[in-house]
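pinned: reference chain
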Amino acid sequence: MELKETLLMPKTDFEMRGNLARKEPLLVKKWEEIDLYQKMNLLRKGQKPFILHDGPPYANGNIHCGHMMNRILKDFVVRYKNMSGFETPFILGWDTHGLPIENMVTKSGVNRKTTPIAEFRKKCEEYALKQVETQRAQMIRLGILADQKHPYLTLDKIYEARQIELFAKMALKGLIYKGLKPVYWSPSSESALAEAEIVYEDSKAHSVYVAFEVKDGKGIIDQDAKVIIWTTTHWKLPANLAVSVHPDFVYCEYQTNKGKFCFLEEFKDRLSETLDLKDVKLIKTFKGKELEGLVLKHPFYNRDSLLIVGEHVTNETGTGFVHTAPG
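pinned: its C-alpha cells
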C-alpha cells in the first residue's frame, strides 16, 4: 500500500495546475465566439455611460511592457465600471501618422526623396495598417475586452475630417495664431521632432564650481559669505542673471579654511574633498524660500545676480544652487 493512500486527501475536479499557456488562448477564443464585449454592454444598454478615451499607441512594431501596462490597467477600470452598472463602450485606437513610420518605410528600401509623395504616403499607410493588425492580435491575446473589430485610426478619412472640423471651430473662436517657437529639428528627416524623440549621446563634459559673493544677504546670509554653484554649461556664465534655490530645501552656511560658503548639507563631504575645504564648521541653516530676493555679485561683471526659487532644483548633484541664464 502506498503511503498517500493512508491519507485523507480532498478530492476535487478543479485542476491543480494552471496550464495557462494552453488555456488562455482557448478562453480568449471563447470570449470571441460568444461576443462577450457586446453582451456586457447590452446588459447595461441605456444606463449611465462611462467612456474611457484610449490614448492611441503608435502603430510601429510589436507591443511591449508599456503597452501591456497601459491597456491592461484601462481594461481593469472599464470592467469594474461595467460591473458597477455603467454602459462602457471601449474603443481602441492607433496613431498611424508620424516620423517613425516614415523611417521604417525608408529603411525597407523606399527612397523618400525620389518617390512621389502620394506613393510614399500609400506605402506608409500600408505599413501602418499592417502594424495595427499585428498589435490588435496581440491586444486580443492579452484578453482586453474592447471593440476590437472597429478601432479608430488617425488615418481614417472620417477621423481626419473631424479633426479639421474641430480645428476650424478653434480658429473661428480665435484660439489659433501664428507665432515663433523654438523646436527640435531633424536635418536628415527634414521634420520637427517631439521632445520624446530626442536621443542624446553620452559624452564627457567639463563642469565647474563657481563662488558668487554675497552683495546683500539681508541678515540671512553673512555679507562675507559666498554661494557655490555647480554647472556643466560654464560658457553661459557671462549671461548669468540669477541663482535658483529650491524653496523647501534646507541650506547651510559653513566656515572653512577658505572662507564662508553656502551649499546643501548633502554635498558637504563631496565639496570638502573636491574643493579641498578643511575645518568645515556649520554656522547657520535657512530654508530656500528665505533666500528669495537676496542679491549676489556676478563673478565676472559689475552687475547683480538675484537668488530666486525654483522647483527644478534637485539635491542629487551639484550644490543646491543652480546657475540660471535665461535666454
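why pinned: The chain has two domains: 20-172, 208-324. The first strand starts at residue 93 and ends at 94.
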